[in-house]
C-alpha cells in the first residue's frame, strides 16, 4: 500500500492530569481520566452541560480530523451520491395484515425518516399514522422508538428519542383524529404493550443511571405520576423489557443478563394482577416464552442444552416442573428464535454459520425446512402478526443478492415472492462473486469468512480488503446484502466478514469460547482470518483495513495492539476500548449487566487481570501503529464518548509511526450515529473515504 497521503498537522494533545486507581493491590495511572465528565448522567439529558475544557478538546478533535480528511470531501460526496442512488427513496414495505387493517412503513422522496401507515386489510387508501419527517422537523436528532397499536386498532402508543441518549418519551395517538392525546411518559425505554381492553399500556422507566428498573402500567388519559408500579428490578446486573403475545393474552416481563433469564406473566385482560413467576433465575439458565394457544413454548438451554431446545408447558401451569421437551438439542445447530401459530411451530436455526427455517405441524409432528443453496446467505424470520394463519413471512439475501421478501404457506409449502429490493441505479448480480472460506485459527478451529468481490477484481495479493467483524454477546453478523458496500467493491476492494468466536455462528460453544477468560480467541481469530486472506492470495497485510464497532471496536483496539503489522489501517466505530475502567465503574448503565460477558474486576482479581491483559486502552505501547479512525457520539449511553477520546490520545502519545490517529465525534447523536437514513449514509461515506484514502485509491 502506498504511504498514506495525510497532511502533516499538529494533533490535539489533551492535558495529562495525575490520576491513579488501585485495585487488588495493583495501581494503574490514567492521565486522561479527566475526559470522563463527572456529570455524565446530566449530559445524556442535556449535552449543553458538558464541561467547557472537555467540550473544547472534542471540538479540536473534530477540527483535526476534518483538516486531515479535507482532500476526501469530493470523494465523500461521490460515495454518498452513489449510495443514495442505490436506495429507492419512495420505498414502502409490504403491509402486514392484522384484523381489519394492514400495517406498513414507507418513505417519501427526499425524506430522512419513515412514515408508518395502515390500509384496509385487503388494500385501499393509505392512512399515515406517524410521519417521521414531520416529527423530526427542526430537531438535530430524532429517532422513533416503539410503535404499538392497541388491540382494537383505535390508539397508537409511540415513542421517540430526541437526544441520541436513548431516553424515550411515549405518547398516545388517537387513530381516528390522528392527534396525540395529553399523555406524555418521559424517561422510558421506549417499548410498550397494550392491555387486552385497549385501555392502557405497560412500559419501562429508566433510572438516573440509564437502567431499565421499573415496569409501570399507564391508564390512557391519566398523568404519569398516577401510573401503577407493577414490578421493580432491584438487581442492577439485569436488563428488563416488556413484550406481548400475538393473541393479546399476556404481557411478558423479560429479565436477563448475558447468561441468565427470568420471565413473569401478567394477564393482558387484568393488568392490575400481581405478576406470576414462570421460573426463578438460575445462573446460566436462559429461557424465553412464546404463546401457543393453550400452551407456552419455551426456548431454553436447561439440562445442559447449550445449543438450546424447545419445550412446552400448559398456560395454566407454566412453571418449570411442568416443562416437557418438544424439540431436542442438536449439538452444533443452535436454535435462535421460535414462533407459534394455531397449526404450526416455527424456528430459525443456524449450523456452521448458515441459517434455515424449520416448520413443524403441531398435531402430526411432521417437519420440513426452508433452505437455500448459496455459499453464504442470510434469512430473516418475520412470521405473522396473526395467530390463526398458515402464512408466515421471511426475507432472504446474500452478499450479492438483494433482499427478497416471501410469504410462505406452511401447509401447502407454496412460496410467493412479494418484493425484491430495488436498486434504482442498477445492480447486476453476475458482476459480483461471494465465497465462504475457512481460516485455520491457532488452536485448529476453522473460522468462517464470507467474501464479496467484483468479478473483475484481481486476486493476486494486490486487492485492498476491508475485513469486518463483531465477536461478542453471541451476535452473528449475517452474510446479507448491503448496497453501501458496493461502493468499495466497485473500486476494487474485497469486502470480508470474519465470523469469529464470541458470536454464535457455529453454535453456543463458539460464543462461550470467545468470552470472559477465552476472550483472546476473538482477537486471534480475527488476526488468523487476516493472515489466511494473505496466505490464500486475496490481499496483503498492508492492504487490509480492519473495521468493527462497539464491542467490535474493542476487537479493533485489541488487534491493533496485538498485531499492528497485520493491518494497513483500522476503523473503530464507537469503540469499547476502555474495558477495564468501564467494568470497574458500576455507576455506568451497562456495567453490572455486562459482568457475565467480560467478568467482574471489582470482585475478582482473576477477572481484573484477565481484562487488564487485553483492554485496548491499557495495552497501548510504543509500536508502529497503522492509521486509525475512531468515531464516537457525545450522548452515547452504551459506549461513552470518553472511551474513544482517551484511547486516541494514548495512541498518539505512544505510537512510533507518523500515521495519523483520527477521532470524529458526533456532537448531536449517540451510539447509533446520525438518525436520518441519508445522514447515516454520509457517515458511511466518511468511513469508506478514510479506507480508500489509506488504500491509496482517492
Short recap of the structure:
This protein is of the alpha+beta class and 698 residues long. 19% of the residues lie in helices and 33% in strands.
List keywords for this structure.
13 helices, single chain, Methylamine Dehydrogenase, Chain H, 37 strands, hydrolase, 8-stranded mixed β-sheet, AB_hydrolase_fold
Total strands: the figure is: 37
Low-confidence stretches: none
State the CATH topology of the largest domain.
Rossmann fold
Structural Rg: 25 Å
Identify the overall geometry. globular
Q: What portion of the residues fall into strands of 2 or more residues?
A: 25-35%
CATH level-1 class of the largest domain: Alpha Beta
Distance between the termini: 13 Å
Mean pLDDT: 95
CATH superfamily membership of the largest domain = Alpha/Beta hydrolase fold, catalytic domain
Within the largest sheet, what's the order of strands?
Answer: 30-31-33-32-34-35-36-37
Number of helices: 13
CATH architecture of the largest domain: 3-Layer(aba) Sandwich
Overall structural domain count: 3
Would you tell me the structural class of the helices and strands? alpha+beta
Biggest β-sheet description: 8 strands, mixed
Percent range for helical residues? Answer: 10-25%
Amino acid at each position: 500500500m502506498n504511504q498514506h497521503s495525510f497532511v502533516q498537522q499538529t494533533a490535539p494533545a489533551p492535558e495529562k492530569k495525575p490520576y491513579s486507581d488501585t485495585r487488588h493491590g495493583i495501581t494503574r495511572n490514567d492521565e486522561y481520566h479527566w475526559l470522563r465528565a463527572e456529570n455524565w448522567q446530566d449530559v445524556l439529558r442535556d449535552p449543553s452541560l458538558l464541561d467547557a475544557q472537555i467540550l473544547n478538546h472534542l471540538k479540536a478533535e473534530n477540527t483535526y480530523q476534518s483538516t486531515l480528511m479535507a482532500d476526501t470531501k469530493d470523494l465523500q460526496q461521490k460515495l454518498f451520491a452513489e449510495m443514495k442512488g442505490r436506495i429507492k427513496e419512495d420505498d414502502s414495505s409490504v403491509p402486514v395484515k392484522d384484523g381489519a387493517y394492514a400495517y406498513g412503513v414507507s418513505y417519501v422522496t427526499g425524506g430522512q425518516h419513515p412514515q408508518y401507515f395502515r390500509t384496509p386489510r385487503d388494500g385501499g387508501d393509505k392512512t399515515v399514522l406517524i410521519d417521521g419527517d414531520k416529527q423530526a422537523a427542526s430537531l438535530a436528532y430524532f429517532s422513533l422508538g416503539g410503535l404499538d397499536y392497541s388491540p382494537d386498532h383505535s390508539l397508537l402508543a409511540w415513542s421517540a428519542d430526541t437526544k441520541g441518549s436513548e431516553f424515550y418519551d411515549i405518547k398516545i395517538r388517537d387513530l381516528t383524529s390522528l392527534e396525540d392525546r395529553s399523555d406524555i411518559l418521559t424517561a422510558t425505554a421506549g417499548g410498550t404493550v397494550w392491555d387486552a381492553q385497549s385501555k392502557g399500556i405497560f412500559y419501562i422507566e429508566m433510572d438516573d443511571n440509564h437502567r431499565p428498573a421499573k415496569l409501570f402500567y399507564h391508564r390512557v388519559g391519566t398523568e404519569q405520576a398516577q401510573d401503577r408500579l407493577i414490578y421493580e428490578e432491584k438487581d442492577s446486573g439485569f436488563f428488563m423489557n416488556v413484550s406481548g403475545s400475538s393473541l393479546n393474552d399476556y404481557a411478558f416481563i423479560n429479565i436477563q443478563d448475558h447468561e441468565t433469564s427470568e420471565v413473569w406473566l401478567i394477564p393482558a385482560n387484568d393488568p392490575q394482577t400481581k405478576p406470576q413467576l414462570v421460573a426463578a433465575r438460575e445462573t446460566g439458565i436462559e429461557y424465553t416464552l412464546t404463546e401457543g394457544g393453550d400452551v407456552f413454548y419455551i426456548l431454553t438451554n436447561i439440562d445442559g442444552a447449550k445449543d438450546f431446545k424447545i419445550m412446552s408447558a400448559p398456560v395454566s401451569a407454566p412453571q418449570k416442573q411442568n416443562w416437557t421437551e418438544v424439540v431436542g438439542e442438536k449439538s452444533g445447530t443452535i436454535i435462535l428464535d421460535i414462533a407459534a401459530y394455531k397449526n404450526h411451530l416455527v424456528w430459525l436455526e443456524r449450523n456452521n454459520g448458515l441459517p434455515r427455517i424449520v416448520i413443524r405441524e403441531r398435531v402430526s409432528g411432521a417437519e420440513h425446512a426452508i433452505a437455500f443453496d448459496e455459499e453464504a446467505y442470510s434469512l430473516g424470520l418475520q412470521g405473522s402478526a396473526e395467530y390463526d394463519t398458515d402464512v408466515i413471512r421471511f426475507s432472504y439475501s446474500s452478499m450479492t443478492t438483494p433482499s427478497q421478501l416471501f410469504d410462505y404457506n406452511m401447509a401447502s409449502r407454496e412460496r410467493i415472492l412479494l418484493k425484491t429490493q430495488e436498486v434504482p441505479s442498477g445492480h447486476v448480480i453476475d458482476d459480483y462473486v461471494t465465497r465462504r472460506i475457512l481460516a485455520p485459527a491457532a488452536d485448529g478451529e476453522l473460522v468462517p469468512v464470507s467474501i464479496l468481490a467484483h468479478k473483475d477484481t484481481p486476486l493476486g495479493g494486490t486487492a485492498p480488503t476491508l475485513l469486518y467483524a463483531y465477536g461478542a454477546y453471541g451476535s452473528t453478523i449475517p452474510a446479507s446484502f448491503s448496497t453501501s458496500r458496493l461502493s468499495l467493491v466497485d473500486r476494487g476492494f474485497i469486502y470480508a466478514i470474519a465470523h469469529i468466536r464470541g458470536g454464535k455462528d457455529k453454535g453456543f460453544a463458539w460464543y462461550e469460547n470467545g468470552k470472559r477468560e477465552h476472550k483472546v480467541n476473538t482477537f486471534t481469530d480475527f488476526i488468523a482470518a487476516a493472515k489466511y486472506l494473505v496466505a490464500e492470495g486475496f490481499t496483503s497485510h498492508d492492504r487490509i483495513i480492519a473495521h468493527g464497532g462497539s464491542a467490535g471496536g474493542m476487537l479493533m483496539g485489541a488487534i491493533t495492539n496485538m498485531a499492528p503489522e497485520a493491518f494497513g489501517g483500522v476503523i473503530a466505530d464507537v469503540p469499547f476500548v476502555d474495558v477495564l475502567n468501564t467494568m470497574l465503574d458500576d455507576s455506568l448503565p451497562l456495567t453490572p449487566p455486562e459482568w457475565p460477558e467480560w467478568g467482574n474486576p471489582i470482585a475478582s482479581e482473576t477477572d481484573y487481570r484477565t481484562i487488564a491483559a487485553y483492554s485496548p486502552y491499557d495495552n497501548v505501547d510504543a509500536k508502529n501503529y497503522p492509521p486509525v479512525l475512531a468515531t464516537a457520539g457525545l450522548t452515547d449511553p452504551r459506549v461513552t464518548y470518553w472511551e474513544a477520546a482517551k484511547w486516541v490520545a494514548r495512541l498518539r502519545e505512544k505510537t512510533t509511526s507518523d500515521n495519523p490517529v483520527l477521532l470524529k465525534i458526533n456532537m448531536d447523536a449517540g451510539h447509533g450515529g446520525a438518525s436520518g437514513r441519508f445522514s447515516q449514509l454520509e457517515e458511511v461515506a466518511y468511513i469508506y473515504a478514510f479506507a480508500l484514502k489509506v488504500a491509496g485509491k482517492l
